[in-house]
Amino acid sequence: MLVPLYEAVYEHLEVGTGTRLLGLGCGSGLALLMAAARGAQVTGIDTDHARVDLARERLLPDASGRESSRCGGTRLLYGGPADAADPTRPAYNLVTAFQPIGCTEGDSDGLGPALAEAVRLAERGSAVVLAGWGPPERCATSAVLRVAGRLTERLRTGAAWRPALRDDLEEVAARAGLRPDGSGRVACPFGYADMDSAVRGLFSTGLFDPAVAASDQATVEKEVTEALHPHVRPDGTVWMPNVFRYLVARIP
């Protein structure tokens, strides 16, 4: 669903053969795959074993998860930025954190320390890209995400939903000592073939995990399904227009 965001950022920064990219929270690796297709050398890190395994299947299908010269030195690692350090390689010149913030309270708390570690592995002047949800009135999915917030608030567990704020990304950059150097907004509609696909897709983000832990899977699925009904089109597909924002900052 975030492919338009990745494309816009890579076009903006002219990502190509000279790019040495470190992807924080790389997930299942789609953004890295797109950068590698442009000729970039990519390293991805994540703290979710399952997602790193999926990324390895995507980017290193014939390398059993190991680095492959055929893949341009692609590396996919479980852990934090320190695990991506390699004194035998040139420093990174692009750091990305594409996991959007501004959805739940405190969802950027762990990003500051991760950025502080990552910038030490990159050249001065390198770009650091942060991503966030756009204004709630321009994100149809916000209404669905409030379901998780309502359930966790009701039982006082987990992080509550909150609307994205205008300066969320700038505040994270400032805490990491980065200098803002441009931003943009990108339309990223969430589209699904049917209701079942929509529910599965939204649950795969992990944003509903606290709600499931606070209640149960069936309850959360029922409430999410109800919240999705306004977005079902006559042909049965589910369509939710959204806008995401990105910030480009520089390492001083």
Automatic annotation (TrEMBL):
<dbReference type="InterPro" id="IPR013216">
    <property type="entry name" value="Methyltransf_11"/>
</dbReference>
<keyword id="KW-0808">Transferase</keyword>
<dbReference type="GO" id="GO:0032259">
    <property type="term" value="P:methylation"/>
</dbReference>
<dbReference type="Pfam" id="PF08241">
    <property type="entry name" value="Methyltransf_11"/>
</dbReference>
<protein>
    <submittedName>
        <fullName>Methyltransferase domain-containing protein</fullName>
    </submittedName>
</protein>
<feature type="domain" description="Methyltransferase type 11">
    <location>
        <begin position="22"/>
        <end position="59"/>
    </location>
</feature>
<keyword id="KW-0489">Methyltransferase</keyword>
<dbReference type="InterPro" id="IPR029063">
    <property type="entry name" value="SAM-dependent_MTases_sf"/>
</dbReference>
<dbReference type="GO" id="GO:0008757">
    <property type="term" value="F:S-adenosylmethionine-dependent methyltransferase activity"/>
</dbReference>
